[in-house]
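C-alpha cells please, single chain.
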Amino acid sequence: MSGKIQINVSGGNASFGNVTQGDHNVVTSTTNNASQVIEDHCAQARASIERLADASGRPPVERAAALEQLETLKTKAAAADAKPAEGAGILKTVRDNVGWAYPIIKDFARVAWPAALMLLGV
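Here you go.
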C-alpha cells in the first residue's frame, strides 16, 4: 500500500531525511541540515570574494561592502519571516554598487534564497 505524506516546513532551518510509517519498520539515513548547507556556501562565497578582490586589486572599502552585503543576505534569508523582496533589494544593491562581486553573491542566493532571485527575473 502506498500513500502520501505532506510535510510543510516554515522558518529558517529544516532537516530533510526519510519518513516511514507502519509496524516494524527500520530506517537508517543521514540528513542535511539546511542552515549548515547555507553556512558552507556562505563561507565559499566569502572566500571567493576575497580571492577576486585580491586578484583584481579592489579597494578594501569595496571588499568590505561586498562581504557586508553577503552577510546581510545570509541573515535575512535565515529569518523566520524572510521577505523575498528584501533579498531582491540586497541583490540589486550588490549589482549596482559592487558589480564585480555580483556573480558570486548571486550564486550564493541560488542556495540560500532562490525566491529573491525570482523577483529579479534571474
